[in-house]
Amino acid sequence: MVFCIRFSLWQRNDLSFVSNRVDSADGATRSIRKLTPDDGQALKFYACGPTVYGPAHIGNFRSFIVQDLLVRVWEAAGGKTRHVRNLTDVDDKTIRGAREAKQTLSDFTRGWTDRFHRDGEALGLKRPEVEPKATEFIPKQVELVRRLIQSGHAYESGGSVYYRVKSFARYGRLSRLDERELKEGASGRADADEYAREQAADFVLWKGYKPEDGDVFWESPWGKGRPGWHLECSAMAMELLGETIDLHGGGADLIFPHHENEIAQSEAASGKAFVRHWFHVSHLLVEDRKMSKSLGNLYTLEDVAKRGYEPADLRLVLLSGHYRQPLNFSWDTMQAARHGREKLGRAHAGLAETAGTEKPGKEGWGSFAPAWESLRHDLDTPKALGALYTAVGELEKKRRQGMKPSEAAIELAAMERILRVLGVSPYFEKEVEISPEIRGLAEAREAARKAKDWKESDRLRDELAKAGWEVRDGAGGWRLVRKTGIA
RNA sequence: GGCGGGGUAGCCAAGUGGUAAGGCACGGCUCUGCAAAAGCUGUAUUCGUCGGUUCGAUUCCGACCCUCGCCUCCA
Q1: HSE-up of residue A106 (Cα within 13 Å, Cβ side)
Q2: What are residue A481's DSSP bridge partners?
Q3: Where are the domains of chain A?
Q4: Which nucleotides of B are covered by protein (CB under 7 A)?
Q5: Hey, how many other C-beta atoms are within 10 angstroms of the C-beta on A118?
Q6: In this structure, is the CB of residue A382 within 7 Å of any atom belonging to strand B?
């Protein structure tokens, strides 16, 4: 097993002139490669989904949004997709969470699954074709373990079954860790299980039952127990997509051990290459740190709403950096995203006005072609967003100087098309309910203005500002806009 | 310690061997009772540091500094 060390940097292949080509970085070969479906039909894409034991945080959503973008770009390029994203609904955290909530495991995970779906929908995540749950594929997982034992890649010990890392020569290739380092890494975290392992690097495929598991267990040839974390993805991916899948993705922290272990399990069982193309999304940082509960910098969609932002603002922020690069989140960048969306909304409205009833002749990218080109080359969202704003600015200028309705119609359709691929909606003002008190203040201010009592008018505006509302006077009278950024 | 990312204006973030996209924020002007919105406009002699190659480097090479992540909980 020789891994070519010379790939110290990502290699860029030549851009194809085929208009529907989509390129993406491959984590295994560290190169930008054309994305292809092996069977020439649909792209078989397996993504590691959430563990449903609590609300997903904005970092989790970065991964899912980038996965969603990949699907959208692929499909906009004319491709078809078989997108599978699992739900991990049994593991230490879900079992503990259910016990603490005094709920059954399935009730507990169903609640968090619903929440994940609601949040995902708010963020514009398209639902994958299949969302398999680990608990629905227990027999397939048991079967996979049995095959691995038969072929000598796994062994039973003390009611659990472990993967014999030594038996798989390619182990560590994806994450570029060699066996010696793995042993050292394991040394600090001795678990009772570890005494049952032949080698510290071996990982558990099937966990023997422990009293704290309560009523969470399944019968198996090795007694009561439950599957290990890595097993579900191998079993479900191979069952639903076949033994070799085109694309497999997830957060960068899954490279080791999760994806490494998936490869070992799957390839040892099937004898075939498990994944043709790896796709890893770098982490979202908050205040330059990885998010964690202990640092108090872990945000959910609920926190975003509390500050007066919309999920779409977050989506734009999460797309503002390249997916292979760490992205630093801050509320300032959320504000920038909101303003960006307002600008897009105004540009959209302007084009719609100029276009009138005119319809575009045929589908095209118009001025947004550079943005599209950036997207299909390894999902270069920062470049694409730059191109998007540039195009919007130029079109606004052109429109003021006189643009034909037919041209506006074409550009409007193109703009909607690129926004659809990004999954980013412009910000449009909408009617919201306001309390009678607030309305009273606004009306009193208007009365003061009419009477040219500027002092009183300004005082009322300050009062409204304190309550979180911004007054904007326009030709048609006053409007109130919810202020953002308030915790 | 091993492996892998980063260091570009106040913030976010592109980019190229030939002289720094875009967004936010900020300043000026127009407009406005004042604001907001909109328009016009200004804002990095400089791309972590030090060397080297070159007519020319932020972009290539070398060394160094700082920082983040992974090394069996983790998107």
Answers
A1: 7
A2: A470
A3: 23-281, 286-422, 436-482
A4: 1-6, 10-15, 21-25, 32-40, 67-75
A5: 12
A6: yes
CATH top-level class of A286-422: mainly alpha
pLDDT digit string, tens, across residues A196-251: 788 888 999 999 999 999 999 999 999 999 999 999 999 999 999 999 999 999 99
A200 CB neighbours strand B below 7 A: yes
Instruction: Determine whether the distance from the CB of A169 to the nearest atom of strand B is below 7 Å.
Output: no
- For the question of whether the overall pTM of this predicted structure is more than 0.90, the answer is yes
| Pair of tokens at residue A326 | 């760490």
Q: What is the DSSP string of A11-24?
A: B-PPPP--TT--EE
Q: What is the DSSP string of A326-363?
A: -EEE-HHHHHHHHHHHHHHHHHHHHHHHHHTT---SS-
Which amino acid residue lies closest to nucleotide B74, measuring CA to C1'? Answer: A253
pLDDT in tens, A149-192: 999 999 999 999 999 999 999 998 888 876 545 554 443 444 44
Structure letter (DSSP) for residue A255: I
Task: Tally Cβ neighbours within 10 Å of residue A414.
Answer: 23
User: What's the complex ipTM?
Assistant: 0.93
- Report the top-level CATH class of A23-281: alpha beta
